[in-house]
Write a structure and sequence with these properties.
By secondary structure, the protein is mainly alpha-helical. The chain contains five helices and three strands. Helix 3 runs antiparallel to helix 4 (82-135) and helix 4 crosses helix 5 (159-166). The chain is rod-shaped and about 90 Å long.
Length: 168
C-alpha cells in the first residue's frame, strides 16, 4: 500500500506542472485592420499616393510630348530627306526608351519609398502588440486577419488596447 501511495504522489507531482502549462493565455488581433487604421499609415499612404500622382503626371506629359512629335514627324516625313527621317525615327525611339526607363524607375522608387515608410510603422505596431500582450499576461497572440493562421479566434481581442497604446 505504501508503494501504491508513493506511486500516486509521484504521478501527481509529474502531472501538476503539466496542468499549469496547459493554462497558456492566448489572444488574437487582426493586424491588417490595426495597420490600416493607424493614423501614421494613413498619412504615409496619402504621401505615397501624391508621389504616385506626380509620377503619373510626368509620364502623361512625356507621353503627350512623344505623341505630338510623332504626329508632327509623320505629317512632315514626305517633305524631308531619308537622312532626316531616320534621325527623327532614332530620336523618337530614344524618347520612347526614356519614357519606359522613367516608368520603371518611378515604380521602383515608389516601392522603395513604401518600404522605407511602412517598415517602421509595422515594427511600431508589432512592438505595441507585444507590449500590451506582455502587460496582460498573454503568451501567444494570433493574427486573426483574413487568410491568417487562426482557425478560431474566441480569445481576447487586443485591438482596442493596442489602439489605445498607440494613441488612437
Amino acid at each position: 500500500m505504501k508503494h501504491f501511495t508513493t506511486l500516486i504522489v509521484s504521478f501527481l507531482l509529474l502531472v501538476a506542472p503539466l496542468s499549469l502549462e496547459a493554462q497558456t493565455k492566448v489572444a488574437h488581433i487582426n493586424t491588417q485592420q490595426l495597420i490600416s487604421e493607424m493614423p501614421e499609415v494613413i498619412a504615409a499612404q496619402n504621401e505615397l499616393k501624391k508621389l504616385e500622382e506626380q509620377y503619373a503626371k510626368e509620364l502623361e506629359t512625356s507621353a503627350k510630348e512623344f505623341q505630338t512629335k510623332a504626329q508632327s514627324y509623320q505629317g512632315d516625313a514626305q517633305n524631308q530627306t531619308d537622312l532626316i527621317n531616320q534621325q527623327r525615327q532614332v530620336e523618337l525611339q530614344e524618347m520612347q526608351q526614356r519614357i519606359q526607363e522613367f516608368r520603371e524607375t518611378a515604380a521602383q522608387e515608389l516601392q522603395k519609398r513604401s518600404a522605407e515608410m511602412m517598415r517602421p510603422l509595422y515594427e511600431k505596431a508589432r512592438a505595441s502588440i507585444e507590449k500590451v500582450a506582455a502587460a496582460q499576461g498573454y503568451q501567444y497572440v494570433l493574427d486573426s486577419s483574413p487568410g491568417g493562421s487562426v482557425i478560431m479566434a474566441s480569445g481576447k481581442d487586443l485591438m482596442a488596447d493596442v489602439k489605445s497604446d498607440l494613441g488612437f
